Amino acid sequence: MSEAPHTAPPRPRTLDPLELGFTPRKRVPWLAPLLLLSTGLRTLLAILFGAYLDKRELQNALPGRIYRQPGTGGELWLDYVADLGDGFDATYSVAYLLAQPELDLDGRRLPRGQVLVMGGDQVYPTASGSAYEDRCKGPYQAALPGPPAEGPRPTLFAIAGNHDWYDGLTAFLRLFARRKDGEIGGWRTEQNRSYFATELPAGWWLFGIDEQFGAYLDDPQLIYFEEAARHLGPDDQVVLVVPAPTWVKAVDDPGAYDAVDYFIRTVIAPTGARVPLIVAGDLHHYARYVNGERQLLTCGGGGAYLYPTHKLPERISVPPPDTLARRASRSLPYDLAGTYPEPERSRRFGWGIFGRLPLRNPGFAVMLGLLHTLLMLPMVGVVHRNGASETRIFSIPLAIMLLVTVACAVLFAKPPSAGGKRQVRHWLLGLTHGLAQVGLGVLGTWAWLQFPFVDWAWPLPPVAAAVLYGPIVGYVASLLVATYLLVAGAFGVNLNELFAGQGIEDAKSFLRMHIAADGTLTIYPVAVDHVCHHWEANPDGAAGSSWVEPKAPIRVRLAEAPVVIR
């Protein structure tokens, strides 16, 4: 198929959004009240009405092409990145590195991938055309605005993560599966659906599946992959790209891995081909589990906030022995062989919650201040009023606020959108946190009664409480939440909130893989200890070079020794 000539936009001379063609966004404040509410509602709607929003079966009307990436001289370089569409600094740092002609990794010169795979969650917090433009397409086009001067144009494939699914996959398909002008900067997009199969050199294949919130695999998708599997033989090997590391999530939710196991068992295994490597994003770190037959690799460090590694289980069984799936594959033990960041560094990151939570989520502190003000006012009314009727009147809202405070804390310990079952530790920690917040409310009420504000004429007392008490108690309450998160994290509870509340942009990662002519696959896990925060335009750069350059070099290293699969 002949390729249409690429016409690159004019190079921007400044970082003005009008010249860039997109607006560099700040990192997502994940604990902002409106964002929590919006994301929670979208998650709930997606869970309740996901079947009605599911566009996968409609994709049967789109071409079901099976692709081929021959590489050069029987070899191929392939890059993998996931969870990338967050703040500009982190997202673009990774995009910039992926776009460079080569990287120097501990003395190894590794060329840019001829194929780039995006492994899900290409946009945060929810999918929309403008969000994709600002958080994904724009940064990647700025990193590689045109095809490379030498060699073939790299190809881009993508699968959908849960955040890509929040609009029913509409914006995802418009960006990655468009038939006309199928490109993101210098990368060419070829796929027609939200999943793909492509043949690689030396008997390797790349399959990317769409699970849609961990649900079943739809019939058109299975038919597509069954057709692709007709080309497989006993000597072939498949790299399977999935949206989430369900092998880890199956520790708490035994059914999480069922769809992946079903796919391998019914589509690939009958051909005699092997699946020595499964790759996923969704958890924002690098982790590798291994046994004698297969590598299970998580690499979600493309731009989103860091997720911890120090609470990962040292050994897992895959599929989990307590799965209810009929005819499940034989359960095998897998050992944790490598992580990034290292567990000790991950644990140290957790302590940063005290400084980062109130500063990076000011709206969360404001919400807590409002909640405690509404808790303190009826407490003051009950204590300060002498008449029985007034006491009864004020005790009604006080009872409501006490119930709301404790219920919110218990719910926070295990949000409805979180996977797995609510266990005893969630109830105990949530209840303890709720009682601690009530205790803070009692202490705040006592302190407020030491001042003369309660004797002022109405409506001055509530106004004074909102102006003076609210901001102070909101900050103190946010530190109490930080303390709770640190303690709960030690028990494996609210780990996501412990790190989402910090919005850590450093410790990013992606994969660079090489398929040699003899069939050896080598995986180079690339670690980015510190992302760049200071950029400058590159208006006079060569054609195809990055529009925006870091003011200081971005240093990279190997997260662990290269992983070799033969």
TrEMBL record:
UniProt xrefs under SUPFAM superfamilies: Metallo-dependent phosphatases
The keyword Glycoprotein belongs to this UniProt entry's keyword annotation: no
TM stretches of this protein: 30-53, 363-381, 393-414, 426-449, 469-493
Keywords, in A-Z order: Membrane, Transmembrane, Transmembrane helix
Signal peptide, first to last residue: none
InterPro entries in alphabetical order: Metallo-depent_PP-like
Identification of the protein by name: Metallophosphoesterase
Organism of origin: Phytohabitans maris
